[in-house]
């Protein structure tokens, strides 16, 4: 059932991205043939960057811009926000492997992974990464790109908080890349710059360190060993960038597909890369990489048992990842409503 929904979501995404690419044709890109259809269906309207990216799809998606100060009967349309996020995911063929999905997942994780259960500070609530010092932390290098990509969506739907938008973008990206459906609900609010108590740097994990460090960081958030390993499975997607972290390369050969590939690769043979950069590991092709903290997932026996489990059983990985990622995005958030059913967690099928 979940897989069927995910596949339905992918079809929907492909249709949308086809339409976006069709419009991009005008600026000299691909997909010329669908342009007249899109124009005919959606009508011409709206200027500015976002309208160029996906505004013409509004007619198709049934969404429209919503006033900044909504009336009391106003019902926020999260499906429209989801659709807008899906539209940007593959809107730039030139970016990395053709998808902003991985960097949006990293944004959702880093905005949430600052949480400390001991004093209830940090976490996604507040969207404090908009400001220094957090925006300037080495660990957050490159995430300005992710925040910028979402800015036109924030402008189009000003009623959504940055903190809801950033976390929802991570969820939508994972689902669109073929991953599990993830429970998500709104309710985060943003802090003003002068209302932020600056967090100490060092709350996010350092890839060059060991299993003790990984446990210290994730136990501080309230996760156990199994949840840690499940969360690490997100390294199936995306890559390291020399100009961001100093590390280089992807973990799998399909960095825009969410799968248990991180675990199957981890079980292979890895050796230290010979280069002048930071210590990282490479496979026999020399194309894939693992960070020292990734290697600890197999060097540490307690972590290793879950690597074995998830390498064998993708459904179990999806189930555990979905639960742990949802928990991560909710750390420290003072929700009013406890019921997930009050907020949509999956894209509506196309009528
Ligand atoms: C010990 C824990 C972790 C460490 C040390 C770590 C470290 C890193 C590093 C160094 C990068 C490369 C950044 C770059 O150069 O662009 C990266 C990328 C990434 N990480 Fe992690 N990570 C950890 C856990 C996680 C978790 C829990 C998630 C999500 C649940 C995650 C999701 C990602 C994704 C999706 C990327 C790719 C980003 C892109 O392609 O732009 N990571 N991580």
From TrEMBL:
The keyword Metal-binding applies. It catalyses: 2 Fe(II)-[cytochrome c] + H2O2 + 2 H(+) = 2 Fe(III)-[cytochrome c] + 2 H2O. GO terms for cellular component: mitochondrial intermembrane space; mitochondrial matrix. Its EC number is 1.11.1.11, 1.11.1.5. It is found in: Mitochondrion intermembrane space; Mitochondrion matrix. Residues 89-333 form the Plant heme peroxidase family profile domain. GO terms for biological process: cellular response to oxidative stress; hydrogen peroxide catabolic process; response to reactive oxygen species. CDD domains: ascorbate_peroxidase. Keywords: Heme, Iron, Metal-binding, Mitochondrion, Oxidoreductase, Peroxidase, Transit peptide. Residues 184-205 are annotated as: Disordered. Its cofactor is heme b. GO terms for molecular function: cytochrome-c peroxidase activity; heme binding; L-ascorbate peroxidase activity; metal ion binding. InterPro entries: Ccp1-like, Haem_peroxidase, Haem_peroxidase_sf, Peroxidase_I, Peroxidases_AS, Peroxidases_heam-ligand_BS. Destroys radicals which are normally produced within the cells and which are toxic to biological systems. Belongs to the peroxidase family. Ascorbate peroxidase subfamily. Belongs to the peroxidase family. Cytochrome c peroxidase subfamily. This is Cytochrome c peroxidase, mitochondrial.
